[in-house]
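From the shared-data thread, chain only:
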Amino acid sequence: MKATVSWQENLRFTCKTETGHTLELDGNGETMTPMESVLLSVGACSSIDVVDILKKSRKKVDDCVCQLDAKRAEEAPRVFTAIHAHYIVKGEGLTEKNVARAVQLSADKYCSVMLMLTGNVEITTSFELA
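Structure, as tokens:
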């Protein structure tokens, strides 16, 4: 996997992946910050797993929302110290057992982003059926 980050002006950068996707990131908060993108990546990566695991179990998923709450260190480097991911999943025939299993598998086995942070960030999860 390859990517390029190019300075535009002030603290704004254009990020481009080898697949051609682009993202604007900014150190002043005028657009998404790099840390916001990491947090969103945790939620997106894990949500992909949750939906995929449920679908492979032949469950009908109508909606999946991941609400994220992160804590950061007070002093530089202001790394994440804790992230909580709360999933709200809606679908026909879903049970708490199905969703709990999908969330657990994502956090413990499949979510590359979460697993990359393990050991440095306290990651917790919860879920509800909508």
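Strands lie at 3-9, 12-17, 22-26, 60-72, 80-92, 122-129.
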